[in-house]
Amino acid sequence: MKPFVLLATRAEDVPADEEYALFLRYTGLAPDELRRVRLEAGPMPRLDLDEISGIFVGGGPFNASDPAEKKSPVQHRVESEFAALLDEVVARDFPFLGACYGVGTLGAHQGAVIDRTHSEPISVVPVSLTAAGASDPLLAGLPATFEAFVGHKEAISRLPASATLLASSPTCPVQMFKVGENVYATQFHPELDVDGITTRIHAYAGHGYFAAEELELTLTAVRRAAVSHPSRMLRTFVSRYAR
């Protein structure tokens, strides 16, 4: 089998390593079948799409809607690299699944309006499939509404005509969309479980996702409901596209 690739941008080793471990667990892939590239550490290597099965994108600290002058040199580089990669991915309709930061990368590439209108605190929210989502093969077997982990400062407030809306939540209208047949992005985190999001809550305390005095409230919020369905799409992605 040709390997999959995980493009990651987390600078902190503990949540970065756990993110990779979670993708391994829920895709069912072995380390040699899921190559990780930490983009915050250096330039994106050239990816020969003919030599890989598909691309995952993890979450990260970058916000596409930040003013250009507030973006770091690393963020500018990563955004430029993603833009070039997505030119080829979209043109070829190549298997791609971006989780959380995937909304910023694929959304920005397609001309979506990304702003802070529909941000969501770190929590569990009900995500509901649209008619297109209910019939999409990547979401096969998922209930019409399922619980998912979220936590984001920005979101898409308007999708371009090139995109198909697949899922929404009560406070965030674009929770998942696709371009073509094989290029997907989610606002929620399909890779996370309770232990994983707990690690991130502690790692990113002080990063503006919640006030210092809200740590315990945030930990309680992610335990309010069982989350088990979203991760199924990761294994489905692998079974659909492994070659």
From TrEMBL:
Return the Gene3D superfamilies for the record: 3.40.50.880
Domain of life, per lineage:
Bacteria
Swiss-Prot/TrEMBL keywords? Glutamine amidotransferase
PROSITE patterns, per database record: GATASE_TYPE_1
User: SUPFAM superfamilies this protein is in?
Assistant: Class I glutamine amidotransferase-like
Q: Where is the Glutamine amidotransferase domain?
A: 49-192
Entry-linked NCBIfam families: PRK07567.1
Give the matching PANTHER family.
GLUTAMINE AMIDOTRANSFERASE YLR126C-RELATED (PTHR42695:SF5)
What's the name of the protein?
Glutamine amidotransferase
Tell me the organism: Microbacterium arthrosphaerae
